[in-house]
Amino acid sequence: MIPQSFLQDLLNRVDIVEVVGRYVQLKKGGANFMGLCPFHNEKSPSFTVSPTKQFYHCFGCGAHGTAIGFLMEHTGLSFVEAVNDLARNIGMTVPQEGGTAGHAGPRGHAVALTDVMTRACDYYRQQLRGALSAIEYLKGRGLSGQIAAHFGLGYAPEGWQNLEAVFERYQDDTLLEAGLVIDSEKTDAQGRNRRYDRFRHRIMFPIRNTKGQVIAFGGRVLGAGEPKYLNSPETPLFSKGSELYGLFEARAAIRDAGFVLVVEGYMDVVALAQLGFPNAVATLGTACTPIHVQKLLRQTDEIVFSFDGDAAGRRAARRALEACLPHASDNRTLKFLFLPVEHDPDSFVREFGAEAFSAEIAKALPLSQFLLNEVLHDKELHQPEGRARALFEAKPLLQALPANALRAQIVHALAERVGSPLDEVTRLCGLDAGKPAWDRAPAKREKRRVQGQAHRALQNLLMYPRLGNELSADDIQVLASTSYAELFGEVLSHCREMGAQAEFRYLSDRLRDSENAASYEDLFKEILSMDENVRDLLLYDPDDALQAERAEEQWRLRLAELRAAVRKLHYDSVCDRLEQMFKRGTLSPDEMTEAAALTRQRAVLKQQLA
After folding, report:
1. HEC string of 383-428?
2. Which of 26, 427, 560, 609 could form a disulfide with 33 if both were Cys (CB 3.0 to 4.6 A apart)?
3. Model pTM greater than 0.90?
């Protein structure tokens, strides 16, 4: 757990205008900065960043948060990843609870590696301008100069040591560690291993992380050389099992389209962007992994995998299916698209057009159907052996799924197809039907609209999280007995963790990572659309004595309102219990005793409410 004191220190040192300004063009407007919101399409700016409050808020769509929240929302980082990213950028190290915050060197090892990758990328881009063969190849693939610039495409010239002209110290170990050069076994006159450039005579595709930093390269050979595609090796910056080509460039398009299209190669991604599908990404010459899926699901709730229809494409699709299973939930859509054997996405769109490709995407197989097809294919279901084999193959796939409604539906369909009773299939596949989904694989849950006194109580807790530490054990028990117990429990847990330093801005960032984030989002929007004076007191400057005094007064009013809401919830639950008891007519002696106690309790609560 990251200590709250460190988070406050971090946000005090970070300039939110500088963080947001990396991604959004901001202009000064009074005390704040304004720009076009990166989270929804707009023509006039409603997105404001406050340097004094260190907070951003869009009056159009309700997006809001600190610098931590912005990185989470815009780049898809988790809470911990966003904190680590900000800390690295200002030379701080992130402690865990009980540890102490420290300061990293101003130019750490990762920064040095990123720097050499950026310089190499600039060099390759510059070389492309004069490389006629490379330009002709790209034009032959139908790419414009604009799309090549958008993806930062470059060219690594022929020759063995071109990077020697770029870096003063060609023998620097950083170049080797970044994967830009290779040391041969042969030595030079000084006894050093002879060094040469890894990429030669290749179209260069920069691979960026979610912050837009170049962390690796993919190179497509010009001519008949081997291998056709060459990736950077694994480095401290780059792990191909967790990175996706084109994700940085596709983020806004994914948000606009409502889904991400996963294809097999760099050129597919670039060509599809040129042809009207800028929401495509690609795995990096490796099978799709659960980390890939998790990273994509931070951007969207719908993924469409596109594979060639040949045997290799089917194998790749099966691995993608297995990577998806732990993340499959009732409110996510995971699909599999198989093109004709003779086509990849690029060639299909060029031959049949964008509308035809969109139609193919719409017809893609849902995960449930693809899973059933996989386990039932080539099985002689009219024979016991064939049905048994299908259940045998289905077992590990079904066990990998969360125990949710989707899995239940797939099990029903499987039982019907193999002609076995549902309980028998459940037992043979070793499914624990009672295990909740969140024990298997956390997933965002459906939005719940909080109503009545529970809404009143939760809204006050979100506005002033310190209030959570003022509630008695009895108050907390009342909230735990409501139908919104999970939401109250999560919020109160964060209130306790943050203690006296609990504030709206910090709580909203923490809850952005919650499985119940959608339920909180409406409440946050309501809070930020309140009267400007009330809203400003949530983000007051503690050094302003007048604001601090007004904020404390508002805090006391909200505490009284929270307690009143809890009493009303308690009163209503007592009334409901009494009504249920008296409806039954005759009561046992124990029930009569309970009813008498509840009647007295109701009278006390009624007096308190009055």
Report:
1. CHHHHHHHHHHHHHHHHHCCCCHHHHHHHHHHHHHHCCCHHHHHHH
2. 26
3. no
